[in-house]
Amino acid sequence: MRVEVEVNGVLAVVDAAPLEPLLAVLRNLGLTGVKEGCAEGECGACTVLLDGAPVMSCLVPAAQAGGHTVTTVEGLARDGVPGAVQQALLDHGSVQCGSCIPGIVMSASAAAAREPGASRERVRELLAGNLCRCTGYQQVVDAVVEAVAVGARP
Amino acid sequence: MAGTLTGSRTITAHAPVAGTSVRRVDALEKVLGAARYVADLPGEHLCGATVRSAVPHGRLRGIRFDPAFDWSGVTVVTADDIPGLNCIRLHRDDQQALVPVGGTVRHVGEAIALVAAPSSAAAHEAAAHVHPDVEPLPAVLTIEDSLAGLVEVADGGNVVQEWHVEHGEVDAALAAAGVVVEGEYRTGPAEHLYVEPQGMQAHWDDDGRVHVLGSLQCPYYVHSALTALLDLPPDMVDVSQATTGGGFGGKEDFPSTLAAHVALLARKAGRPVRIVYDRSEDIAATTKRHPSRVRHRLGLTRDGRIVAADVDVVIDAGAYATVSPVVLLRAVLHATGPYRVPAVRVHGRAVATNHVPRGAFRGFGAPQAQFAAERQLAKAARALGLDPLALRRANTLRPGDTTTTQGTLDDSAGLPVVLDALARAVQRPAEHTGRLATGAVRRGRGIAAGFHGAGFTGNGESLLGGQGTVALTADGRFEVLVSSTDMGQGARTVLAQIAADALGVDLELVDVPLPSTTRTLDSGPTVASRTTLIVGRIVERAAARLRDDLRAWADGLGLAGHDLAAVAAARASGGDPPTVTEAFALPGNVAWDQDTLTGDAYPTYAWSAIAVDVAVDTDTSEVTVERCVHVVDVGRAVHPVGVVGQVAGGTVQGMGWALLEHVVEDEGRIVNDRLSTYAVPTALDAPDVEVIVVEVPYADGPAGGAKGLGELPLDATAAAVANAVEDALGVPIDEVPLLPEAIHRARGRTGWRRA
Q: B104: which strand partners?
């Protein structure tokens, strides 16, 4: 079926099978920063923003995104300059293997926009849907606490 | 262009970057989502799928291809399509790439046939129409059944490896000891759960050379396996690493199997083929941590001095040997923990079962062995009424001490310093808080110490003779060319730091490309906490020699005094830029006899001590970690923020193994092969880990004395958690994972009642 969706500020018209996940459609558009880690909404590696709210794109049928706006990790940098959350992750040395990072960037960007000033404990709650196997979350939480403290733009 | 330099002196002092936390070389592309993992790479390719055994043990009578299915456009590969040896070459040649008709199936999930089709969905659809006909045989699914030997599941007997270390009069010393602590300890299998699943692609070029690219830790393991399987000379096999999303040992041995599969499919299809496992297939079909059973007797004097240990280690190797012989050896060599043990006997056996093969997993046998050793120390402290930290400080290995293999520790034996730092960080009350408390929530503290030999065990590094190259490029930059991989741990950055300092140039001038066997010599696999220590030293020596060569060239032109970057640019512009290759050199004071397992088992060790505070809800037997302090000595910390990240991450991974991670195997089938059923720590489960880094340098380590790091955080963590739970409840719990049901069972055995 034909789906029109605004992705990273650009209107995309895609042909999606019924119930085809948004994840597959985004990756077919070349947005491979959106990762598949489990395909059942447990790992959060495929997290994107749907009208500004974090969703796991493996669970969202592409058709459901029709007429809405989607932001992926590729949509955050301006002219190659990392967004505030991305910069905080760089500053805190939060990145190891990196396969969870795009999803964490999106969850954290939503947190920064929606809950500026969130506490460390609240940040852990907001990141609880993003599995990371490398960092133990510590340096990730450090970075996101800092990013939400400054009310960072996504 | 050399003439553009003049004789004037413009040299500036180069500020060392080792010891500083520079931005990782791969961090920017990863936060931008621009890093390309194998599943992200562009290019047309077929998708592969695997037909697997549904039974744990049996004879493959035949393979039926559904005649009603449309097989046009589908490539099918069976064992008949293997041009060379049907094995995944590693320590033994026992594991088949595909089970041949008439051959033996040894585990659920073993590969029997392969298919490739234009889409992943089409490939899986085709695979569902391939029906292996397997005549079931009795399966062996426990260590005890394997040892009993009534059913033989490995050629040559179920005990696939045995090691023995003994020194002194163990039985006499135990008989004379003031107290003997005895225990039996079990640890379960665990899943690596790298966030990026296993993936690999292959294509054959017109010259008959196969190119394999994927998510992997050890390019030359894959290379070796493919040359044997495909009957090709080494230069006709090209193995490259794509950006790799976590490994933890899970991408040490298994990628050879996946590479074999895509190479066979691509060969038959005449087109590129890619396989990326979905999560369920990845959990079900790839290696797990070796489950263990350790029986441990520890003798001490009444005042708390260890006099003897007698340890029996058995690990479940699963269906094939993979790396089990060396996992077992590392378990044996770490079995008494980081302590002086005058009389010691350690016997180790790895036994075959019909489970999915167990393979490398961060720690490599040492965490299993040290779980038992540190539970023993906790019990000894209780039995003797001694403070657990004081007991450890009284027995810790120190410089000049002798190891269980009669090796001598050098000045880098840093555990005394580590324990001092832990003691300062935790001002422990003397009483066992949990046993004195009342109410539903009981609190306790667990202490444990660990050590980890850095580099290959025994004479492995000498046998391998790893090599590394530092090259000046045509544009005046430098490249570090090694087969060591970055799977997320930061090796590319650390090696760049070491090279930059040895060269005396800015870090920005040094590149560490992803390895390929065509471009990079074999610096060894990325395992065994060896990359910084062993490969870092090779790179440092190569970089220093290249620096000296460039200086000599500049001196010859009367250009002494220019900084090396300018010299390098000038030298490169003249054409034919030099490269320098160095090989592993055994430090003169290290000696090992593999036949008798005597001498220095490792050139140096990293050391750790951890304190864990837990709260146990006695209504639900759930455990919450409330505080964790982990002190490590990894020698010189080349990248301090990276060290903290590795320790925090490894500690949380160890807590997952200790508290949550339970691979449920039913008749050899992994039942919980999904993330909704296999739980790993989330950001809410993980505590903040207070990481304290002390630096006790190793004289032969790079960057002023770096040692190994990656595996150390797993060594003591699980025992500290179990010791804390025992402290909280007064109930010994000698298995991991410490699931609520395990704690409940242990409470039932001891008749625990809330006061």
A: B59
If you search the block for the tokens 């089990």, which residue do you land on? B324
Reported ipTM: the value is 0.98
Provide, as residue numbers in chain A, all residues whose Cβ is less than 8 Å from the Cβ of B489: 96, 134
Task: Look at the alpha carbons of B620, A131, B633, B189 in this order and tell me if their dihedral is positive or negative.
Answer: positive
- Across the interface, whether the CB atoms of B278 and A39 are under 8 A apart is answered yes
CA dist A122 and A111 (Å) reads 10
The reply to whether A32 touches chain B by the CB within 8 Å rule is: yes
Closest C-alpha among B40, B24, B356 to residue B214: B40
CB B466 within 8 A of CB B535: yes
E strands, chain A, where?
2-7, 10-15, 47-50, 53-56, 69-71
The torsion angle over the Cα atoms of residues B134, B135, B136 and B138, rounded to 10 degrees, is -140
- Sort B222 into a burial class: Cβ within 10 Å, 0-12 / 13-18 / 19+: buried
Query: Letter for the amino acid at A92?
Result: H
What part of A 68-107 touches B (C-beta under 8 Å)?
A: 72-74, 76-77, 80, 82, 86, 89-90, 92-102, 105
The HSE-up count of residue B300 (CA atoms within 13 Å, CB side) is: 27
Distance from C-alpha of B336 to C-alpha of B345, rounded to nearest angstrom: 9
Six-digit token string for B527: 């395992």
- Is the link from the previous residue into B737 a cis peptide, with omega within 30 of 0? yes
What residue of A is the nearest CA neighbor of B282?
A38
Distance from C-alpha of B677 to C-alpha of B3, rounded to nearest angstrom:
68
* Residues ≥6 apart with Cβ < 8 Å to B382: none
> 3-class SS at A143?
helix
CA-to-CA distance for B319 and B94, rounded, in angstroms?
9
Q: Please name the amino acid found at residue B53.
A: S
Name the residue among B299, B304, B311, B359 with its Cα closest to residue B335: B311
Q: How many CB atoms lie within 10 A of CB B314?
A: 24
Contact between residue B608 and residue B713 where contact means Cβ atoms under 8 Å apart: yes
Determine which of A43, A105, A137 to mutate to test the interface with B (most B C-beta atoms within 10 Å).
Answer: A137
Are A38 and B246 within 8 A, CB to CB? no
- Chain A environment of B686 (Cβ under 8 Å): 124, 136-138
Angle between helices B366-384 and B717-729 (to 10 degrees): 30
- Please give the DSSP secondary-structure letter assigned to residue B282: H
By C-alpha distance, which of A95, A103, A102, A88 is closest to B645?
Answer: A95
State pTM to two decimals: 0.97
**Of B490, B500, B488, whose CA–CA distance to B544 is shortest?**
B500
Q: B500: helix, coil or strand?
A: helix
Q: Which of A97, A123, A148 to mutate to test the interface with B (most CBs of B within 10 A)?
A: A97
| Average confidence (pLDDT) per 10 residues, chain B, 755 residues | 49 82 98 98 98 98 98 98 97 95 98 98 98 98 97 94 98 98 98 98 98 98 98 98 98 98 98 98 98 98 98 98 97 98 98 98 98 98 97 98 97 98 80 59 96 94 96 98 98 98 97 98 98 98 98 92 93 96 92 96 97 95 96 98 98 98 98 97 97 98 97 98 96 96 92 75
Question: Where does residue A98 rank: exposed (0-12), middle (13-18), buried (19+ CB within 10 A)?
Answer: buried
Tokens (6 digits) for B671: 């039942």
| Beta-carbon separation of B279 and A37 below 8 A | yes
CA B423, CA B725: separation in Å to the nearest integer? 20
Distances (CA, A) of B80 to B103, B263, B268, B331: 12, 14, 11, 39
Surface-to-core class of residue A80, CB atoms within 10 Å of its CB (0-12 exposed, 13-18 middle, 19+ buried): exposed
